[in-house]
Specification:
Helix content is 42%, strand content 14%. It has 16 helices and ten strands. Strands 2-1-3-10-4 form a five-stranded mixed β-sheet, with helices on both faces. Strands 7-6-8-5-9 form a five-stranded mixed β-sheet, sandwiched between helices. The chain is globular and about 60 Å long.
């Protein structure tokens, strides 16, 4: 390639990066969109999972419908290995989009995996602390010196560490046992651990008289809740910006539909066919408007949570460096969707302190 040709390619690359996400063109026809989901879900044909707008888009076949007219296939892959398994697939170029939590995606970013966060999907998600039914543990401070199960390497991990720190404890002040969610619940029932930080499945144990829930992140402060998102690889975004826009716009439409309180019953009925019974999901959302939990916004709260999570991950030696966070959030697609659908201001935005900003 001669210097003039190289200069021309650089100019073309610059021009494509300078225009909006829906304007750039690609010569290669898109045939399949590959989406990774950081949960194994339950069942098969179809796999069922709940709790987020990504889960709703999957259940409703919304993305399939959005790309149907162009003959583009949407391929979903569910990973029992959660976020770390999604990262491996991203590194190997096997995914275009991924739904996962803050910690695994931060680890990937720190290791140079090129992605951009394009929408919230499962923000301010519950974190709970459960203990044995006859335990004298009544608050987080009582965990000092106790054996506590926690699924490390997931967004449960950093949320729990943040909650511990706020209540005067560090990881070394207790004995953290790394177990996945089913394993941690089994360990609690078998009295192999004193307590467990986990998700709504703990309500199942409580209802069977096998556990007692003594703390909830949502009841304490949203800063200790868990955050998940939808991201896209830089490579796919550069080649297929119009497809990325269509994915985000579709997700926003789904989020809007189920953020309507009139659809609350339908929402929980759908999720009741997934990992947990309907009543469990209902309880997880008590006192929380659907707009709070199903928001796609990339607001100050979400960015600040990831900035803090990046620092915490480095302090815990989970990453070798603290990756830059602010530019990771690409709001262009979301802004286009909100404007096009006339939904600007529909979802509440939260500040870094976990409080409503407007």
């Amino acid at each position: 390639m001669n210097p003039r040709q190289r200069l021309g390619l650089l100019a073309l690359a610059f021009s494509l990066s300078s225009i909006g996400p829906a304007q750039a063109q690609t010569a290669e026809p898109l045939k399949v969109i590959r989406i990774g989901v950081a949960t194994g879900g339950v069942g098969s044909n179809p796999i069922r999972h709940g709790g987020t707008t990504t889960a709703l888009a999957y259940t409703d076949g919304a993305l399939e419908e959005a790309f149907k007219k162009d003959g583009i296939q949407v391929q979903w892959t569910f990973f029992k290995g959660a976020g770390p398994a999604v990262n491996e697939a991203l590194v190997n170029g096997q995914l275009d989009f991924a739904w996962q939590g803050d910690l695994p995606s931060i680890v990937a970013r720190a290791n140079g995996v090129k992605t951009r966060i394009i929408a919230g999907s499962g923000v301010r998600t519950g974190l709970y602390l459960a203990v044995q039914p006859d335990s004298d543990i009544r608050r987080i401070e009582d965990l000092k010196g106790k054996k506590v199960a926690l699924f490390k390497g997931t967004n449960l991990h950093l949320a729990a560490v943040a909650a511990l720190a706020a209540h005067g404890l560090k990881e070394r002040d207790l004995k953290l046992i790394n177990l996945d969610i089913p394993g941690s619940e089994t360990a609690l029932v078998n009295k192999d651990v004193d307590a467990v930080f986990s998700y709504v499945g703990l309500f199942n144990l409580r209802d069977k008289g096998l556990a007692k829930i003594v703390w909830s992140a949502a009841a304490d402060n949203y800063k200790y809740t868990r955050q998940t998102h939808l991201l896209v690889t830089d490579e796919f975004a550069a080649k297929q910006p119009q497809a990325v826009q269509r994915v985000v716009t579709t997700l926003v439409k789904v989020a809007h539909r189920y953020s309507d309180e009139a659809n609350r019953a339908d929402l929980f009925e759908r999720w009741g066919k997934t990992e947990y019974p309907e009543k469990i999901w209902r309880e997880d959302f008590i006192g929380q408007p659907l707009r709070v939990r199903l928001s796609p916004l990339l607001d100050t709260f979400l960015v600040s949570r990831y900035e803090e999570a990046a620092k915490d991950a480095h302090a815990l030696k989970l990453t070798r460096s603290v990756p830059e966070i602010h530019s990771w959030f690409d709001r262009r697609y979301l802004n286009v969707a909100l404007k096009e659908l006339k939904l600007e201001g529909f979802w509440p935005a939260y500040g870094a302190d976990g409080q409503l900003s407007h």
